[in-house]
């Protein structure tokens, strides 16, 4: 068996075009472009790479972009003051705090300071709580992008057994909530799950967000299962690899996301969609 490749690059391209025209329309209504502000505490190379890709995408779709780059020794008070300034800024519709932060800073406390209506990353507890209750919320981009891929390829979730490997606030937990909302029966696995393979082999849908290359092997995959790999690990040679052994798993799975070219490109385009949603909501459009 050879799996269908869930092509995130192609779908992201399609959604990018649609988002571009939405933003053109919204900009005409607002009399300005919807604006994204990214707060980055400098020091992490991967983070800088991600910020660049967001900046480029904003230019492509016609959104405003502002980078607040803070020095590595920034204090908690300074970080929170820069967030407060963005909350108060009427030209900023979305705020993204780049994670992870250096160890001396408290990410949870900083996130709490973000106006939840501008929380385009879906990380504020109000948005996470709304999602957990199955209500309308700004949803974290990475899991939202994974769901969009599943929807595009018309993968049935209702009544299916789904596993999520990883329980982070930004990927694993919201992905589990979205799958519950889609009427799947969801099991959340993590680093303390004793026999991961035994759980995954029961599941028709397997979503992996553990940040550990090679964690999921082909023998853990139920034949015909759909595999969504959220891992973006930079290998020793600088190449990007997921959490799933892709080559071997593609021989067993029914459908699988590649890395790169799967969930990664979807993440950024979902960020643009959240920016549109936040701007509309803020301005009652
Ligand atoms: N507050 C916050 N929110 C995030 O959503 C967030 C973050 N912090 N910190 C870093 C991670 C990482 N992340 C990626 C987004 C897109 C690709 C992506 O587009 N990947 C391409 C390859 C891009 C390349 O080669 O550089 C792909 O998989 O095909 C990857 C990784 C979002 N993150």
From TrEMBL:
Gene Ontology CC annotations of this record: cytosol
Binding-site residues for NADP(+), renumbered to this chain: 166-168, 232
A GO MF term: methylenetetrahydrofolate dehydrogenase (NADP+) activity
EC number: 1.5.1.5, 3.5.4.9
InterPro entries: Aminoacid_DH-like_N_sf, NAD(P)-bd_dom_sf, THF_DH/CycHdrlase, THF_DH/CycHdrlase_cat_dom, THF_DH/CycHdrlase_NAD-bd_dom
Catalytic activity: (6R)-5,10-methenyltetrahydrofolate + H2O = (6R)-10-formyltetrahydrofolate + H(+); (6R)-5,10-methylene-5,6,7,8-tetrahydrofolate + NADP(+) = (6R)-5,10-methenyltetrahydrofolate + NADPH
Domain Tetrahydrofolate dehydrogenase/cyclohydrolase NAD(P)-binding: residue ranges: 141-281
Pathway: One-carbon metabolism; tetrahydrofolate interconversion
Domain Tetrahydrofolate dehydrogenase/cyclohydrolase catalytic: 6-121
One GO-annotated biological process of the protein: tetrahydrofolate interconversion
SUPFAM superfamilies assigned: Aminoacid dehydrogenase-like, N-terminal domain, NAD(P)-binding Rossmann-fold domains
Origin: domain of life: Bacteria
Gene3D superfamilies named among the record's database cross-references: Leucine Dehydrogenase, chain A, domain 1, NAD(P)-binding Rossmann-like Domain
Keyword annotations: Amino-acid biosynthesis, Histidine biosynthesis, Hydrolase, Methionine biosynthesis, Multifunctional enzyme, NADP, One-carbon metabolism, Oxidoreductase, Purine biosynthesis
PANTHER family registered for this protein in UniProt: C-1-TETRAHYDROFOLATE SYNTHASE, CYTOPLASMIC (PTHR48099:SF5), C-1-TETRAHYDROFOLATE SYNTHASE, CYTOPLASMIC-RELATED (PTHR48099)
UniProt subunit comment: Homodimer.
Functional description taken from the UniProt entry: Catalyzes the oxidation of 5,10-methylenetetrahydrofolate to 5,10-methenyltetrahydrofolate and then the hydrolysis of 5,10-methenyltetrahydrofolate to 10-formyltetrahydrofolate.
Family the UniProt entry places it in: Belongs to the tetrahydrofolate dehydrogenase/cyclohydrolase family.
Protein name: Bifunctional protein FolD
Organism: Oscillochloris trichoides DG-6
């Amino acid at each position: 068996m050879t799996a269908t490749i869930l092509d995130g690059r192609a779908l992201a391209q399609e959604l990018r075009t649609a988002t571009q025209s939405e933003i053109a329309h919204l900009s005409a209504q607002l009399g300005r472009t919807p604006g994204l502000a990214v707060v980055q505490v400098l020091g992490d190379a991967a983070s800088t790479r991600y910020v660049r890709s967001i900046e480029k995408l904003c230019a492509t779709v016609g959104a405003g972009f502002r980078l607040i780059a803070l020095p590595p020794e920034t204090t908690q008070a300074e970080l929170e003051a820069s967030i407060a300034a963005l909350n108060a800024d009427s030209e900023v519709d979305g705020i993204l705090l780049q994670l992870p932060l250096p160890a001396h800073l408290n990410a949870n406390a900083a996130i709490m300071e973000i106006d939840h209506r501008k929380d385009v990353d879906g990380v504020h507890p109000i948005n996470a709580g709304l999602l957990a209750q199955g209500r309308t919320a700004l949803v974290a981009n990475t899991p939202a992008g994974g769901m969009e891929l599943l929807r595009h390829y018309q993968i049935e979730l209702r009544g299916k057994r789904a596993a999520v490997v990883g329980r982070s606030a930004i990927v694993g937990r919201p992905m589990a909530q979205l799958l519950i909302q889609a009427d799947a029966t969801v099991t959340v696995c993590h680093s303390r799950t004793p026999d991961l393979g035994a759980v995954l082999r029961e599941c028709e849908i397997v979503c992996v967000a553990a940040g550990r290359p090679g964690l999921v092997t082909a023998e853990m995959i139920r034949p015909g299962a759909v595999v969504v790999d959220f891992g973006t690990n930079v290998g020793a040679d600088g190449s990007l690899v997921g959490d799933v052994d892709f080559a071997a798993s593609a021989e067993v799975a029914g459908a699988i996301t590649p890395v790169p070219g799967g969930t990664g490109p979807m993440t950024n385009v979902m960020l643009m969609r959240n920016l549109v949603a936040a701007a509309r909501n803020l301005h009652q459009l």
